[in-house]
Design goal:
By secondary structure, this protein is mainly α. It is 48% helix and 0% strand. The mean pLDDT is 86. This is DUF4385 domain-containing protein.
């Protein structure tokens, strides 16, 4: 278990773990932590996650938000949180591509001892080149992300979850 019980636990065997069957193992973590690990939610949501154009982003974010509402109706907090994370990731990835055509934020590979950490870690940031199409895709995802994040029932369930499981 991580030292901070609130932190996302990257040490679990996510390839063989179904968190719908063992929900007590799920930790919210910060931001998008674990978004591409937690099953079966990753497999349910990822096929709908796209942001190439504003039209695609709108369709994708609306579908994922509907999944958020469906999970909410079923009382599935992990599903709600994972849908929220995918909406957040739609915003952050579209924003990165809006700023950097290749999607690469920094020059050079990530040093082995820095993988999985955020920030440049000594690498020079590449110059920005604003892409208005990706910026609009990011704006669309951000709106849906905020709608999910600020949902009163989601906020209540998140607080309850963190009090119960850390």
């Amino acid at each position: 278990m991580p030292a901070n019980n609130r932190a996302f636990n990257y040490d679990l065997d996510y390839k063989n773990l179904n968190l719908r069957e063992q929900p007590e193992l799920y930790r919210v973590g910060k931001g998008e932590m674990g978004v591409l690990l937690v099953q079966p939610y990753k497999s349910e949501i990822l096929p709908h996650w796209r942001f190439k154009t504003p039209e695609i982003a709108r369709e994708s974010s609306e579908k994922i938000f509907q999944m958020f509402l469906d999970y909410k109706q079923k009382g599935d907090f992990i599903g709600m949180d994972m849908a929220r994370k995918f909406l957040q990731m739609g915003y952050t990835r579209a924003r990165r591509y809006a700023n950097h055509k290749t999607g690469q934020k920094y020059d050079g590979p990530v040093p082995d001892d820095q993988k999985g950490r955020s920030g440049a870690h000594g690498r020079e940031q590449l110059p920005r080149d604003e892409d208005p199409v990706k910026a609009e895709s990011a704006r669309i995802f951000y709106g849906k992300y905020l709608e999910a994040r600020e949902d009163p029932e989601y906020r209540k369930q998140r607080k309850d979850w963190q009090e119960k499981y850390g």
